[in-house]
Write a structure and sequence with these properties.
- Helix 3 links the parallel strand 4 and strand 5.
- The chain has a single domain, classed as Gcn5-related N-acetyltransferase (GNAT) (Aminopeptidase).
- The chain has 174 residues and is α+β, with helices and mostly antiparallel strands.
- Strands 1-2-3-4-5 form a 5-stranded mixed β-sheet, sandwiched between helices.
- 31% of the residues lie in helices and 21% in strands.
- The radius of gyration is 18 Å and the shape is globular.
- The protein has 5 helices and 5 strands.
Length: 174
Amino acid sequence: MPPDAQPSAAPAITVRPATPDDAAALAVLAQELLAFYGLTSPYQRSYMAHAIANGAFAETSGIEVLVAEDSAGHCQGFLAFGRMFALANCRNSLFIQDIFVTRRARAKGVGQALMAAMLALAEDQGIEQIDWTMDPWNDQAKRFYEKLGPLLRGNKVFYRLMGPKFVQNQPKEP
């Protein structure tokens, strides 16, 4: 290295669409995501990899995943999103399900690279709106999102129905 050269502060990051071959790496990241929220995965990592490979990449999954890799090809993060048509403003839109960067790669441009790749994808496809949610206690995520520029924020509450409550609320046949 020349004497006046500076070492790179951040490793080279490549963002690309995930494939079923990424399922094992995505399972590792998904378990780390659950741990970030203080949750334990109810599944073994091998089962999660199998479920991701067969579920996330099915034609009917409704989800697309971008992965961020370092120069050695190791997944450092992912961004999972779905496509929607917003009836109220008649626009195609994207909804970010999750964006996650492994702890060792945070504050190194990985999240920014994932968002930039998704924004480029949206622009290429004429998509004018991207929505996502954030936990109000996640100050690091809040700072990250606010660096993106002006954001329209609402006071909406996010709901999720799953498990036994999902079954209990199914319409009953007369």
